[in-house]
Structure of Glycerol-3-phosphate acyltransferase:
Amino acid sequence: MRFFQGIHSLILAFFRKILFLWVRTDASGNSVEALGLDLEKPVCYVLPTSSLSSRLVLEHEVIRADLPGATESLPVKNGPAHSFFFLYDRPGGLFRRRPTPTVTSEFEALIQYGLAHPDQDVQIVPVSLFWGRSPDKEKSLVKLLLSDTWNVAGRLQKFLIIMVHGRSTYVQFNQPLSLKQVIDEYRHSEERAQRKLARILRTHFGRVRQAVLGPDLSHRRTLVGSLVRTTAVKEAIRETAAKEGVAPEKVRAKAWKYADEIAANMSIVTIRFLEVILSWLWNRIYNGIAVNNIKVVKEVAQESAVVYVPCHRSHIDYLLLSYVLYKNGLMPPHIAAGINLNMPVVGPILRRGGAFFMRRSFKDNPLYATVFNEYMHVMFSRGYSVEYFVEGGRSRTGRMLQPRPGMLAMTVRSFLRNHRKPIVFVPVYIGYEKVMEGRTYLGELRGKKKQKESIFTLARTARKLSNSFGRVALNFGDAIPLTEVLDDVHDSWREEAYDSEYRPAWLNTVVDRLAQRVASNINAAVAVNPIGMTATVLLGTERLAMDEKQLIRLMDQYADLLKAYPYADTVTLPEGSGKDWVAYCENMGLVERQPQKLGDIIALEGSNAILMTYYRNNIQHLFALPALVASLFENKDALRRDKILFLAGVAYPYLQAELFLQYDADDVEKVISRWVDVLIDQGLLTELDDGRIARPAEGTEEMLRLRVLSRFIIQTLERYHIALGILRKNGSGKLTAVELEEQSTLLAERMSILFGLNAPEFFDKSLFRNFIAHLKKNGVITTDENGLISYGDGLDEVAEDARLVLGLEKRQAIQQVTMMDA
């Protein structure tokens, strides 16, 4: 018997060698650590359907990864000399097909072993294999033959698939199941134990397949045609034709044109081509891509439609996220892209890579809005993964922009119409050590007109490919199930009926709540890098320069501050120490070294001084609360703890709205109190015998640390004080919100010039607009029927509290500016 098994093993080894002359694989989860295997228990690997080629690939991967069980037999009577088995036999023989799947004899034997040995356990590792990972596009017979789809391929089809896609084969090992745990409740029924384990494995393989391949794709022309035939679009065509006095046929042709303009045309060939090109590109311009918390996506993608909501810092964002997902065994999403990117040559490539195009505004075009809404509904109801940027455009300052509600509202309304498929939002933080468009952003912030995207601007960008842009971090944040947000706002939403036009009264509340959670979860997944840490500390100095040794000490101490009270589990910190970070920034050309006999000085000079504010703004929210507490001691030697909590609590709602801080108003007092304790532990504050909290003595290292820390947030507080000062100077009922915004922006810009403030966001009009809106939301100000702002004693209290935060020099400077005529 052993002789024949040996011959059989040699034959299989020969076939494996032949197969891998052509086949190339990419595997994930193929390690003891990733699988969490117990080496004291037997291990066996299961594939869904009997296939010699799949068996050979699996055996190759197990042996190559040195996984347990590669040369061990299954723990069953007369088991084969390997630890692999299939769940189901092939659906048919040479001339007929079985009507239903039939479990294999090895599967049955494993169940029998588990029932006969209740004290023994076996670790069952499900393994999924994809030849080319191509989704099924119903376009031609050739496509169907040569794609790995949801159907089990016949022998000829499998041979052709291997020949075409064998060099792009993906193998995914998944967390093991405990045989003992699965069948424990069915010890007296072998049939029911078999059905349970088969059902668990079948469901698992189906979920993995959807996550990797995505849902079946229909031909694009069929999709476009079906959009025009939906009830909502037909009604929009009828109304537009009546309103414009145009024949319905012409309006229908326009609707078809809109659908054709919008729809993606995802092609696996293009995705593979882009993978090769992007691999070369990333290696050329970046020093690596760090991916964190990818397990979040792998879990939710198996049973939900995923909406990826990344921050938007660069045009590279589109490509980077799809590349990372594809490399990690997940289907790239359909991406909402601005119509400005639908340019010759580039547009068709992006469309085949999954981009669908949208106009910047749907205003005054209800027909286009209806077609786009129906397209989005098709995406979500069919379970496609989708990606869009809630900020709308790229952030020019490095901060998270205020979310725009449009796409979120479409997603919520689509889900209300058809909520059979769960929708889960996955926030994504994309952090660059050196953003490619950095210099362009500086020009735009200085008033230079934004350049329109074209082939020529892309060609000019290509000249930068010889430059090094450092490392990139892509962090996945905590997922947000849409049902969770709906339940919090309106728990009876499942009991109502919805159509394409219905907008419930509570919809805006849901969208606002969802937008805030998305933005705060993106910020909670921030990747801190050496550039951001160096920028934060140097920009907190008066002259943007510091002794190198002192700078290194401060960076190490502020990093310790982040570790002492972590903002979130999803935040990642840089490797190394302050010494490494300074050297790294110098190598990147972002800081200047000025040799000096008493010790070298590290400084920010020229345009780098402004550019580095971008990278500081990436992580400013992490230091917002400790910096706020530190700022209270700018002109106070000591304060009672309750006074600290009160003053910080007054400012918190506005900082939360601007920086998307994750703490609820009900919890923030505890958080601030905890930060006071941390600052005491770190030596930045001292608790006196009478219970008051005091700052360190002037001239000490600790006082320097506290003062620099306060400057991480002080310009934001100064901006608030400018708006309050202008409002109080003019008086109640004298200014509209627009006038206050305009005057605040002008005076902030003037102050920036007069007092050498180097942060472009200091005079960002949108930040003033947001602050004024939240003054109104919090009831500090009101507007009358003419739009004029009125206020009472509450505003004076806020203004006086703000004065306590600012030092004498800053108060006088702001007072000087606000007393000038605008």
Q: What stands out?
A: The chain has four domains: 2-213, 220-522, 530-649+662-699, 714-818. The longest strand covers residues 423-432.
